[in-house]
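Before the break, one more example. Copy the sequence into your notebook; we will annotate it together after we see the structure.
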Amino acid sequence: MQRETEEGYIIITCDFTGEDWDGESPMIEGHQGSVVSAEALLMAVEQAEPATERTQCTMCLRHRDPPMKIWRHPDPPEKADPRAVICWECIKLADRTFAKDPDVEWEKRT
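Here is what the structure looks like once it is written out:
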């Protein structure tokens, strides 16, 4: 997600953890400015579970039906979007993308 400071600067923030981008930490942007950090992606890979109801993914905006796996932060930090959800397809895509980036220390996990 993006937010603007009082000075007019745009801050890029992970929708799932509320972590601000420091220009170095790996993050991937989805549709409409949604963002997932490597920290959030790691949690998503480890904690994703089958959806129990039709859910819209924050990253791709697709509606996902059970039993597709999804992840939402179990206890979202204050700066995070408490409605943020990432689907298994986006988790896999982000996982592959981080693994291919030579500047990111990431091994494929899915």
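The longest strand covers residues 2-4. The CA atoms of residues 37 and 43 lie 10 Å apart. Try to locate both features in your own notes.
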